[in-house]
Amino acid sequence: MSGRGLSRGGAVLVAALTVDSIGNGLFLPLSLVYFRELTEVPLALLGVLLSVANVVTLPVPLWAGTLADRFGALPVVVGSQLLQAVGFLAYAWVQGPVGVLASATLVAVGVRFFWSAVFTAVADYADGSAGSWTRDTWYAVSNGARTAGLAVGGLVTGFVVADGREATYRGVAYAAAACFALAAALLAGFVRTPATRPAPGADRRADGYAGLLRDRPFLALIALNTAYAMSNMMLGLALPTVVLDDVRGPAWLTSAILAGNALTVAVLSAPVGIRAQRHRRTRTIVLAAVLYTAWGLVFATAGPGRPVLAAALLVAGALLFSAAELLHAPASAGLAAAAAPPAARGRYLAAFQYSFTIASMIAPAFFATLYEVGTAVPWLALAGVNAASILGILALERALPATALRAGADLVAPPPTTTVTSDAR
After folding, report:
1. From CA 354, how far away is CA 235, in angstroms rounded?
2. Which residue intervals of 242-306 are DSSP H helices?
3. What is the C-alpha separation between 150 and 240, in angstroms, rounded?
4. What region holds the Major facilitator superfamily (MFS) profile domain (predicted)?
5. How far, in whole angstroms, is CA 270 from its chain's centroid?
6. In angstroms, how far is CA 254 from the centroid of its own chain?
7. Which of 183, 246, 339, 364 has a CA between 20 and 30 Å from the CA of residue 422?
8. 332, containing H or E segment
9. In the chain, how many H helices and how many E strands?
10. What pLDDT score was predicted for residue 28?
11. Dist CA 355 CA 219 (whole Å)
12. Residue 36 to residues 47, 162, 166, 348, 422: CA-CA distances in angstroms?
């Protein structure tokens, strides 16, 4: 793909994604607690309102993908951050159910737009970059930056919860709004990406969502990635329950393991991403699936009785999880971006995000239901799902475009017509 050397502001792009994630990290642990502390809305109603706000966003990726292909992904990301900034400003003033629903919907829509466009924006930047980093490397670095930002934001929020004053809670809302506004300003002011418009008819799959619905290999990739997305969510979702109810360990063990995971991903994303791109993306995903399988089996063996051994097993399992996450994140995003036709990449990658949306809906019920059957059952089931996915990925490898299997292979083909735009204006 032509246009390499046309992108600008790579360091600012990474910094903006970090600042964005700090804003997310500030509020991620407070989604329910914040409104419970600052409003008189009953907890049960708060849960319903926040669920409705998220359900409303389900069609957003379809719209976001179309906008990304038509106008560029970067302005969609900037717009998503501004929506979140406005939403968090509103958080500081809401009092009743209507205000809670309106502000939460603004934030949820902004979040959905962000995740539906950010991977396309990073791919666009990588394609126009003069450096040697591939899309996979940029995805790895971005993942590390986002993880670091989430960890910093979460750490700050821990002090906020300990403080407990209303003014402090409102200060978090203002700080989150400032983070998103700053991230939007950085991207709009300093980051540029090339807009690539291949000639009409260059790819029979380029007719957007209609082409996507006929693209069975890509649909299979979305389905398989749902299993990995659910695996990624399961550590944070299930670990507190496992530590307190199953292992019966100290509460700080959960925080220590999650902090260790965040630190590992933040520090090792770039070096692991650079080394992993030497191999086929599908084989890297297979290795990640093997590690997810091993993680599930290790967690299935943890239980009460020998606290030191149980804690050691949880730590060992978390290390396996971190290694799987480090491998899966850039390889899966790179594979999806490379398998998409350039003219419809925004729509394809937006649709790819439905794997995470579906996983977020399934994961809580998956864990809670199976945990009631037996404490080891959800982990054995998760290990089985990941083991079965290995056969699926290996079969899919033969159906995907050959140029999608290795990082940079799709950049060798003759370039389409490229024009440079200031995407963030």
Report:
1. 20
2. 252-276, 281-301
3. 18
4. 217-425
5. 16
6. 21
7. 339
8. helix 307-339
9. 16, 2
10. 76
11. 10
12. 10, 15, 11, 38, 42
Distances (CA, A) of 379 to 184, 294, 311, 385: 40, 10, 16, 10
CA distance 27 to 157: 7
Question: What span, in angstroms and rounded, lies between the C-alpha atoms of 64 and 115?
Answer: 9
Reduce the DSSP state of residue 318 to 3 states and report it: helix
Give the DSSP letter of residue 30. Answer: G
Q: HSE of 73 in the Cβ direction (CA atoms, 13 Å)?
A: 28
CA distance 44 to 70: 41
Element (H, E) at 212: helix 208-214
Contact 4, 129 (CB under 8 A): yes
Contact criterion met (CB below 8 Å) for 104 and 53: yes
Tokens for 423, please give them.
């995407």
Q: Give per-residue pLDDT as tens, 309-363.
A: 888 999 999 999 999 999 999 999 999 999 999 889 999 999 999 999 999 889 9
* Beta-strand pair 193-196/418-421: antiparallel
DSSP 165: -
- How far apart CA 268 and CA 152 sit, in angstroms, is 17
C-alpha–C-alpha distance, residues 333 and 360, integer Å: 18
- State the average pLDDT for the chain: 88
Residue 392: name the closest of 278, 227, 267 by CA: 227
CA Rg value for the chain: 21
Q: CA 87, 89, 94: angle at the middle one, nearest 5?
A: 85
CA distance 269 to 286: 18
Rounded Cα–Cα distance for residues 3 and 367 (Å): 46
Token pair 């940029």 in the structure block, residue? 138
- Pair 289, 148: CB distance under 8 Å: no
Q: What are phi and psi of 38, to 5 degrees?
A: -105, -5
Distance, CA of 47 to CA of 31 (rounded, Å): 9
- The residue type of 412 is V
- Tens-digit pLDDT profile for residues 184-228: 999 999 999 886 555 444 454 556 688 899 999 999 999 999 999
